[in-house]
């Protein structure tokens, strides 16, 4: 029996039948008019009796109307939260950038700000115009206008996310170093990134407008102003899904490219860091704010697309599960907007870092706050001085406890030795270090962060850098050391004193810098002018000179009995402190292996000879683990003298005589350098780079083809004379 109303058709399925309702009607028997849904739910006294007709069917329709309105309300809550969040974030971004000049403007912030405005329009329009009967919109023209506005705004936001991804990808690829797209060459055009902004508006506007014009009669339905997925409107929705989905996939692809570049191309990361260190050495936020956007752009593209498609489906299907999914996407996108705003704006992330330093334990908290350039101790001294002093006391007690435990261990070891060797002389016992009076060393800056006049470490470095650059400018003009120091003092210190800003910390910083300059500046005026020495006191990285041509080679190797070609990549040059730390770890392992023979004692060492004269030889050898001093030479050797195993009996090789070696103590010959290097960091980088160059040369020389070619030339007797004959 057909129980459907006149607004539906009974459709028989395998084991049951259901009503296929006409457009604008809902319910099990198609007796609920969508235009009356909100009137029915808002009227608490309405029942099947008040509407007339089939009471049971109408009561069922009323229950379904309440479910539809409840699902509608869930999505409305999510849209309201997203609209408010995007609007508030846009206002905060505008207030943060209103007082900055053009040099502080970042295209990433520009794209993000425009995207937030598009999200406000998209979410606000969806909140107002999802159902035309909610606020009595005109179904014909008003609904089409909001359909165009909402879908255009969502598409613009998706396109701006792709522009953000492109900016990050260029940043990680060292194609675009900073906000103005000025690379390492100063002749590149500035502000060219603005070309990417208009297409993000023009392309979605034109695409959505063309889709509406070509599908004018099948755009909206009475239940939805933002699109329907029915048979006649599906081509339009499919075109919009292709547009937004393609932009989302493009953003993901660009983020993947940036991630792979960061992971596999160390040279690009070094060039990027080098550029910012040379141009903004004390403003690290310029690079970090763009680098942090990589995960946010990836997640934001997915959430933005998910919000658009889930809201459209929830509005069209009016289904509670879809409404829940849409609300989850909208709330996640709201949280994402807040997290991205805080993480990518240094002015806001500063407080997150400070709270982390205060609330988290020392091993979990950040070590540096980049906006005000403060260390963790300086932040604690400023915000939590009691905790800072408490941690210093705990560190002092831990050090004293460590020394005490070490003394107890030495005492126990001596007791074990005396039990084993009762007649052991005191000379062979371990010495317990005497504590003695506390040793004090002069500090270049004796003030603590909690004391008045303290200047943060980063600010002291910036002040001394400026003084050094000004000082070398005077030195290059022909002034001697005293004259240059007096000129620098009159330009900086005296000027500060005149206006009453000079503090005790400033005087201490100046005193440390002046003493260092007088000690290290050993260059005559003729030498400075002859060799055009720029500044030997600053450890700036050297410009990159290598290209892809000389950083990659294909070598032939033997692998499991077969010869295979292997791509060998040249290690990037050592320029950054993070590279120095990694190389230092490897260097310490090598140094430990090289020092192992020197750490041992041999029978021909003077101290061992002296001890064996007064003690039993076997006891001395067992306690000190004395090694053999020499071995016999082979019988076919010309010299019959034994080979010495004691490295102290042989001359030092070149390994120990490199003046650039970390920790080297000895003379530094500066005569061979046109630009002398006094900074130990520069010498350390130069030392590690020489090691890398040597390893690169050995990797090329170990090529099997190279070795076979040499063997062939030698076997044929070829020499230079054969080629010139």
TrEMBL record:
<feature type="transmembrane region" description="Helical">
    <location>
        <begin position="189"/>
        <end position="214"/>
    </location>
</feature>
<keyword id="KW-1015">Disulfide bond</keyword>
<feature type="transmembrane region" description="Helical">
    <location>
        <begin position="145"/>
        <end position="168"/>
    </location>
</feature>
<feature type="transmembrane region" description="Helical">
    <location>
        <begin position="68"/>
        <end position="96"/>
    </location>
</feature>
<feature type="transmembrane region" description="Helical">
    <location>
        <begin position="321"/>
        <end position="341"/>
    </location>
</feature>
<keyword id="KW-0472">Membrane</keyword>
<keyword id="KW-0812">Transmembrane</keyword>
<dbReference type="Pfam" id="PF23106">
    <property type="entry name" value="EGF_Teneurin"/>
</dbReference>
<feature type="transmembrane region" description="Helical">
    <location>
        <begin position="234"/>
        <end position="254"/>
    </location>
</feature>
<keyword id="KW-0245">EGF-like domain</keyword>
<protein>
    <recommendedName>
        <fullName>EGF-like domain-containing protein</fullName>
    </recommendedName>
</protein>
<feature type="domain" description="EGF-like">
    <location>
        <begin position="1"/>
        <end position="31"/>
    </location>
</feature>
<dbReference type="InterPro" id="IPR000742">
    <property type="entry name" value="EGF"/>
</dbReference>
<feature type="disulfide bond">
    <location>
        <begin position="21"/>
        <end position="30"/>
    </location>
</feature>
<keyword id="KW-1133">Transmembrane helix</keyword>
